[in-house]
Amino acid sequence: MASNVSINNQVLIRTAEIKDAERIAILANQLGYSVTNQQAKERIHKIQNNDNHVLYIATLDNEYVIGWVHAYICDSIVIQTPALLLGLVVDQDHRHQGVGRLLMEEIENWAAKSGAEGVLLRSNIKRNEAHLFYEKIGYTNIKQSLTFYKSL
Q: What is the domain range of residue 16?
């Protein structure tokens, strides 16, 4: 569970709840991912019931959600146990204010407490601003790869 951390008494980080689904979906859409409110509710419910996952949100004092981050502890044969970052988004009107850094610090703390050896993330090759952000907070680009998907 996230501690109630704030930046200048304005931003609070806490574990996401079903009531946050609409804003989580809106923010996902800001990054180009089509997520409906209903899908967000269903996915949050699954995440809440899986100890290997965590979903934190950043809110303003009035509970308005301005960012979220989702990670998963992933057992692997080929690398030491990482926490895999599955998503990070800060509202376009609240970027460059330390919110993303605070969300990532919360993930790193959770990952360490959960026994992960590090945090692994993938970022679309087009997201240059995101790449600069991750490098600024201490992440290193370790490889470039293609991503494949097959609908079932």
A: 6-136
Residue 145 lies in a domain: no
CB of 137 closer than 8 Å to CB of 104: yes
State the pTM of this model: 0.89
CA 141 to chain centre: 18
pLDDT class of 1 with cuts at 50, 70, 90 = very low
Six-digit token string for 45: 């419910």
| Res 9: pLDDT | 60
Q: How many domains does the chain have?
A: 1
Which CATH number characterizes residue 84's domain? 3.40.630.30
Residue pair 44/82 in contact (Cβ under 8 Å)? The answer is no
Per-residue pLDDT, 129: 92
- The candidate with the shortest Cα–Cα distance to 59, out of 106, 14, 24, is 14
